[in-house]
C-alpha cells in the first residue's frame, strides 16, 4: 500500500492517523504541493483532482480523504473508526462533515491562491478570511461536542473518524494563529489525541518530507 | 420523519432525492434561507450549523447532508444508494466528495455573502469565482466518470449517492449560467436522472416553498 501525501496537508494527515490507528504499514510517497508536483500529468492520471492524499492499494488508486477513510475502515476493520450504532455513526459523520465540508474547503491552498492572485486580497484580509471560517466552524464543533458526555475523544473512549478529521484541522488552525484555547472541548480532545502514539506518528513533523523546523 | 429544507438548497435537494428513491414519506418543513430563518435560535438548537437540510427522526435531529444520506441508507436499505462492493463504494464516495468538498462549499450562500459584503467583490467577480470552481470540479467529475463504462447513472444502471449529489450541483450550476453541455457525461446523466419520477419529485420547482416561477 502506498500513500501519496504532503506533510502539512490536513487531509493527508487524516488518512495517516487512520493508518496508524489500524497499524497498517505503507510506503510514504511525498508530493510537494508547494512545488506544484500535484499538477504533473503522471500524478493527475492517478488522481484527476490533483491533490493529496491518494491511496494506492493494488490496482486501486483512490482520491478524496473521506472516501479513503471509509475504504480503510472496511478493509481493516480493527479498530473500527465508524461506530456500528446507526445514531452514533450519524453523529460522528455529522461532525466529520462540518470539518470536511464547512471549514477545510474554503481555507485550502487553492482557495487561498485564488484570493491572493485573482482577487488581489491583502495578506491581512486572507488571514481574517481563514480565521473567520475556522472560528465559525469550531463554534459549531463545540456545540456538537457539548451534546456528548465529556470523554477523551470526540465520541467516547475510542477514536473515531471525527478525531481523524478534528486533529489535523486544529493543527492547521493553530499554525495559522487561531486561538484554540477559546474552544475548551476541542482543545482538550486535541491535547489528548496528540499525546497518543498513533497521532504522534501521523503528525506533520514526523513525516519524511517535513522540513527540520516547520 | 421531518425534513427541514429550502427549495433551492442543493444539499437539501440531495436528501430529497434519497428520500424519494427510497419511497420514504416525510413532513416538509420549509426554512427560508433568503429571509434568514436558519439563524433563529429555535432552529440553531436543532442544528448548530444553522443550515439545511436537517432530518428529524423521532428523537434524532441530524444536520449535514452526507451524514443524513448515510443514515437514511442504513435506516431504509432499499434501494441501497452505497454499493456493497468495497471498491465500487469507494469510487462512489470519491465522486460524492469531489462535489461535496471541492465544489459546493466554496460556492454556497455564506461564502458568496462574504465575498460581496466583506471583500467587496463585484457581481461579475463573484460570478467568475462561482464558475471557476464549478468548471474545475466538473472537469474532475468528467475524468472520474470516464473511468466507468457509459451507463444511465454515474455508476451503472441504478442510482447511487453520486447521482444524489451530482444532480443538485448541476441544477445549481445551470441556474448560475454554467455551460453544462461542455461536460457530456455529466450532461447525459443529469438529463437521464431528471426524467425519473424520484428526481422530478425532489426537484426544487416541485417543493411547497418554491415560488411559482424560479
Automatic annotation (TrEMBL), chains A, B:
Positions of the GST C-terminal domain: 85-212
Entry superkingdom: Bacteria
Pfam families linked to this entry: GST_C_2 (PF13410), GST_N (PF02798)
SUPFAM superfamilies xrefs: GST C-terminal domain-like, Thioredoxin-like
Gene3D superfamilies associated with the record: 1.20.1050.10, Glutaredoxin (3.40.30.10)
GO BP, sorted A to Z: glutathione metabolic process; L-phenylalanine catabolic process
InterPro entries assigned to the protein according to its UniProt record, in alphabetical order: Glutathione-S-Trfase_C-like, Glutathione-S-Trfase_C_sf, Glutathione_S-Trfase, Glutathione_S-Trfase_N, GST_Zeta, GST_Zeta_C, Thioredoxin-like_sf
GO CC annotations on file: cytoplasm
Span of domain GST N-terminal: 1-80
Coiled coil feature spans: none
Molecular function in Gene Ontology: glutathione transferase activity; maleylacetoacetate isomerase activity
Family: Belongs to the GST superfamily. Zeta family.
Protein known as: Maleylacetoacetate isomerase
Amino acid at each position: 500500500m502506498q500513500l501519496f501525501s504532503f506533510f502539512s496537508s490536513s487531509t493527508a494527515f487524516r488518512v495517516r492517523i487512520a493508518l496508524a490507528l489500524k497499524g497498517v504499514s505503507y510506503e510514504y510517497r511525498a508530493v510537494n504541493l508547494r512545488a506544484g508536483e500535484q499538477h504533473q500529468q503522471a500524478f493527475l492520471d492517478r488522481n484527476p483532482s490533483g491533490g493529496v492524499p491518494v491511496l494506492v492499494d493494488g490496482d486501486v488508486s483512490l482520491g478524496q480523504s473521506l472516501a479513503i477513510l471509509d475504504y480503510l475502515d472496511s478493509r481493516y476493520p480493527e479498530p473500527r473508526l465508524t461506530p456500528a450504532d446507526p445514531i452514533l455513526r450519524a453523529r460522528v459523520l455529522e461532525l466529520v462533515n462540518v470539518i470536511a465540508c464547512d471549514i477545510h474547503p474554503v481555507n485550502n491552498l487553492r482557495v487561498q491562491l485564488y484570493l491572493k492572485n485573482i482577487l488581489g486580497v491583502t495578506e491581512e484580509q486572507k488571514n481574517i478570511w481563514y480565521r473567520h471560517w475556522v472560528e465559525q466552524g469550531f463554534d459549531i464543533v463545540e456545540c456538537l461536542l457539548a451534546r456528548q458526555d465529556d470523554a477523551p475523544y470526540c465520541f467516547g473512549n475510542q477514536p473515531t473518524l471525527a478525531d481523524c478529521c478534528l486533529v489535523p484541522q486544529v493543527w492547521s488552525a493553530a499554525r495559522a494563529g487561531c486561538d484554540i484555547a477559546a474552544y475548551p472541548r476541542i482543545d482538550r480532545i486535541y491535547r489528548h489525541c496528540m499525546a497518543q502514539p498513533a497521532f504522534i506518528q501521523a503528525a506533520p513533523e514526523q513525516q519524511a518530507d517535513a522540513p527540520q523546523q516547520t
